[in-house]
């Protein structure tokens, strides 16, 4: 669902252009347009909606009834305060039925051929995707009638159309729907049952991501009783980059290039996100900043002159990508492979530690200090993550080796720094009942034994103010 509201100022004088504020899920953006279709075109492209533009309309509530917005209405509504429009999808027939006796058989045949070509193209696309998945060793989820995929008998089965939704914690939900429902509507119903909000999870069916703005009928094999997989959207949150040159630096470029399993969700200062193409499979993304840097860490953005404490980026895990981060070299001592879409943190992870929350914060502060985070950085790290760290009585955590992290998110700085320290933590809450079981005993005993400086690979020069140092920290909650 997309809401549009007029911004202060209404339409531009003499041009007929209307300035509107657009809201889609949790995102907001402003667009200017001189027609309904121009606004729909811009909003759909900006938010990446994979829906034919001809099937999108704007609706307005007038006297308690929703009606479709025309260009004439748009200009009048934009002059009103707090006007909210809704983007909705309709199925537009290729051929409108003419009066009786005047049916154009030639046109009908043309539509039939067009539909057949569309079905053939979709079939070829599915074959291409299947071959790509086989190439990387992907396996479809077990079929519904597999013993491991059998829903609990106590859950009532709806009489009409419904789908089963299976979470990663093996919880089952029977979600009623119609073929005209959007996938986003299904996610809202799931959220009403106590799951994550729609923007924090994805639905997968037969290895394919179900797009929010598409409807159930867009997926012909998604039938009554099929199993849809619920996958949380994992986010690498608040990686921030500090530059500490030994003397004022007039110009430096900082670039972050993500493997395809990650996609930028936010960057600051704002910068263009570029797609990377490697000629094989899908590429990743790259963002680049130009700044001046001072010895105290203050950055000045080129162009705007804005002063900054650090550069910021966040990324969502892209479970729909078939391209994995590159594996470590065969002769590398660091054999860890970090996949942002499926990070590993469990009781069997060799470096994982488990602490009660009452002991976590002093441990975390001391560890971050050893990893070369200065006082302000440690403060920011802990206070930013505190709400998520305090969800459960215990917290399991580990820090990634820099080499493994760099393969998923490459950091490039010019001129080249003397020392680069990248600190990225994986963590998750653990209930008291689970933590006290035998499975986590090794992680509890490991708390005072892990040498995080060695695990992360921090160089001795990370504390030397006479050297050009770059520091980054971030984390990901493993849901």
From TrEMBL:
Domain Ubiquitin-like: 161-219
Pfam families: ubiquitin
Signal sequence range: none
UniProt cross-references to SMART domains, sorted A to Z: UBQ
Protein name listed in UniProt: Ubiquitin-like domain-containing protein
